[in-house]
Amino acid sequence: MNAAQLIDNGISEGEAGRIAARWNSVYDCIREELTAQVKSSKALGGDPTRLTELRRELGQLDRCTHRACTQSPPGFSANAALRLVQEILRCLPLRLQGDTHRLAALLADWARVERERAERTARHAEVYRRG
Question: Alpha-carbon distance 114 to 108, whole Å?
């Protein structure tokens, strides 16, 4: 992921740089950990389906090709990334959690901005609709 991809998806320039830097600092470690957990789960006869899905979605977010739903265009969503990172945190070892929590904090801040922007747009649309 790079800042230009995030800017193309509506994230401000300064925030995009911070999110991309933090994301890139933890992404490879998280992906390696999830891959190891999938292999361990398979070796022990477990069902690694959700871990595999998390790893796939993480890769999609990294490439900015993630779709929050089938109706949305591919891109980066701070809300989707935050939800995914929060779920991944539950299965990460402690050595990876600190940096991942810092990433979650940046995503939470940007998700709030996205939510406020969507609410403001909806209010303006309602005012416009009413005339």
Answer: 10
Q: Output the six-digit token pair for 88.
A: 């991944």
Query: pLDDT tens, 40-79?
Result: 999 999 999 999 999 999 998 888 888 766 666 777 778 8
Q: Environment class of residue 88 by beta-carbon count within 10 Å: exposed (0-12), middle (13-18) or buried (19+)?
A: buried
Residue 32's pLDDT is 95
Of 75, 82, 79, which is closest to residue 61 (Cα–Cα)? 75
pTM over 0.85: no
DSSP notation for the chain: --HHHHHHTT--HHHHHHHHHHHHHHHHHHHHHHHHHHHHHHHTT---HHHHHHHHHHHHHHTT-B-SSTTSPSB--HHHHHHHHHHHHTTS-HHHHHHHHHHHHHHHHHHHHHHHHHHHHHHHHHHHHH-
